[in-house]
Design brief:
The protein contains four helices and no strands. With about 180 residues, it is an all-alpha fold.
């Protein structure tokens, strides 16, 4: 192969690499909102788990906290699976053991209401920033669970004055003996 042919091949290869590099750059940038949204979601799920665990540690196995903490853990796994699918790393729960339980069960239930309202608002902010269907589906499902399940459960707890639920339907109607 003569020098001109080698130069032409090298120039073409370099141009191709430059084109591929430029084409890849916008794709990486467009992935950043998805990555940021998923990391924000897992962080919020971590905060909820640590908050609800603090309540359980102080007051025992009380509803709705005992049920909702399990849901928060499932939510984390859903978000982590989406991050794993993309080979993106995520941190450990930075809130574990660092949240103090509220002074009463009523305050704990009010905290749950505030946390779920904030979670719904977080997803209201995140969802419009991403266009990836799989990530959007996960975040939409998590927001739905907060709005339709968790928030009403904590609101019922507040409406009962902080008395824990006793099973399906939100409680037995008994209030005697609870010092929450």
């Amino acid at each position: 192969m003569n020098r001109v042919a080698k130069f032409s091949l090298t120039a073409a290869a370099m141009a191709g690499i430059a084109t591929l590099s430029l084409a890849a750059r916008p794709a990486q940038q467009s992935d950043e909102p998805v990555r940021a949204a998923l990391l924000a979601a897992v962080d919020d799920e971590y905060l909820a788990e640590a908050t609800y665990q603090a309540v359980l540690d102080k007051y025992g196995d009380v509803r709705p906290f005992s049920n909702i903490i399990q849901a928060e853990r499932r939510h984390q796994q859903m978000v982590k699976a989406e991050l794993d699918r993309r080979s993106w790393s995520y941190p450990a729960n930075r809130y574990t053991g660092k949240i103090a339980a509220p002074a009463s069960m009523l305050e704990a239930c009010q905290t749950g209401v505030k946390a779920e309202v904030a979670n719904i608002a977080l997803y209201d902010r995140l969802l419009p920033t991403i266009d990836d269907p799989a990530a959007k589906d996960v975040l939409t499902r998590l927001q739905w669970a907060s709005r339709e399940n968790h928030l009403p459960a904590f609101q019922r707890c507040v409406d009962r004055g902080g008395f824990p639920g006793m099973g399906p339907g939100g409680g037995s109607g008994r209030r005697g003996g609870w010092q929450g």
